[in-house]
Design a protein that fits this description.
The chain is built from 4 helices and no strands. The chain has helices at about 10-25, 30-40, 45-60, 60-75.
């Protein structure tokens, strides 16, 4: 999953782009780790949280995926 909207933070966007490269290579756990760092800078970025949920789910991190989706829903119902 990728997003087309900026987080509003240049560094967070760069981290997201790196994370997306990892996800494209199939390393969803590493992608989620880097995206978590981006979300520390852009905690209100709902699309980022949706993507984190997707990548966590693909990495077998079901509880973290559910929490990320819940955060996204809270930010953008």
């Amino acid at each position: 999953m990728s997003t087309s909207t900026s987080s509003g933070d240049l560094i967070a966007d760069r981290r997201f782009n790196y994370a997306a490269t990892l996800a494209a290579a199939g390393d969803f756990a590493a992608a989620a780790d880097v995206l978590r760092q981006a979300l520390e800078l852009a905690a209100e970025w709902a699309e980022g949280w949706v993507t984190l949920g997707d990548w966590c789910q693909r990495a077998g991190l079901g509880e973290e995926a559910a929490a990320a989706f819940a955060t996204a829903s809270r930010l953008d119902p």
